[in-house]
TrEMBL record:
<dbReference type="GO" id="GO:0003677">
    <property type="term" value="F:DNA binding"/>
</dbReference>
<dbReference type="InterPro" id="IPR010093">
    <property type="entry name" value="SinI_DNA-bd"/>
</dbReference>
<feature type="domain" description="Helix-turn-helix">
    <location>
        <begin position="3"/>
        <end position="50"/>
    </location>
</feature>
<dbReference type="Pfam" id="PF12728">
    <property type="entry name" value="HTH_17"/>
</dbReference>
<protein>
    <submittedName>
        <fullName>DNA binding domain-containing protein, excisionase family</fullName>
    </submittedName>
</protein>
<dbReference type="InterPro" id="IPR038148">
    <property type="entry name" value="Tn1545/Tn916_Xis"/>
</dbReference>
<dbReference type="InterPro" id="IPR041657">
    <property type="entry name" value="HTH_17"/>
</dbReference>
Length: 76
């Protein structure tokens, strides 16, 4: 779906200025229709899904208990 820069910035939760900077740096694809830039939000779906998957993996890793080391001796 093609949206305006304002709508795309809201979708990505960044400022319009930052989004324009990313467009001009060619890090985000956008089309200029002669009057305004239009951004296809579908280009972000894969990235956002991958970020959610990575975030879930990190949280699962951090939730694991630390295994006891066989090298640590109880000196009592």
């Amino acid at each position: 779906m093609f949206v305006s820069i304002k709508e795309a910035a809201d979708y990505l939760e960044i400022s319009e200025t930052d989004l324009r900077k990313l467009i001009f740096e060619k890090k985000i694809k956008a089309f200029h229709d002669g009057e305004q830039y239009l951004v296809n939000t579908a280009q972000f779906d894969t990235h956002l899904k991958e970020m959610e998957r990575i975030r879930a993996e990190i949280q699962a890793y951090l939730a694991e208990p630390v295994p006891e080391s066989s090298y640590v001796k109880d000196e009592d």
